[in-house]
Design a protein that fits this description.
Blueprint lengths: L16 E7 L2 E10 L5 H13 L2 E12 L1 H13 L1 E5 L3 H9 L7 E3 L2 H6 L3
Parallel strand pairs: 2-3, 3-4, 4-5
Antiparallel strand pairs: 1-2
């Protein structure tokens, strides 16, 4: 686990991480694009840094267009490190979670507001 390193900030559109911010006591990481072994590193770093500093991390994956096993592995790792909430609305991403059996393991929400509110 990474120590108390402040979360990583890339500018909009420069990587797989679109934005990061705190809201309602949660750290939100907005991801974008295709997430595979060639592109997932900025998201990997952002998620690990967030998990080291926040008890709840929300991954907004509404702009994710593809994910491979590297992305799925990251989600499983984060689930062990923090309370991970995933905003996922695309049928493709939800189907990927279902096929991999992650739909039963991840806390998925239809929008950011619901994810911030948490289980309820």
């Amino acid at each position: 686990m990474i120590g108390n390193i402040p979360p990583h900030h890339d500018g909009p559109g420069t990587s797989s991480v679109l934005a990061e911010f705190e809201r309602a006591g949660c750290w939100v990481v907005q991801a974008q694009g295709e997430l595979d072994s060639d592109t997932v590193d900025p998201l990997y770093l952002a998620m690990w840094q967030a998990a080291a500093s926040y008890g709840v991390v929300v991954l907004d994956a509404t702009s994710v267009t593809f994910g491979d096993s590297t992305f799925l592995g990251l989600l499983l790792q984060m689930r062990e490190e923090t309370e991970l909430r995933v905003v996922a609305t695309s049928p493709q991403l939800l189907r990927l979670f279902s096929l991999a059996g992650l739909d039963r393991m991840l806390d998925c929400y239809p929008d950011l507001g619901a994810a911030l509110a948490g289980p309820g």
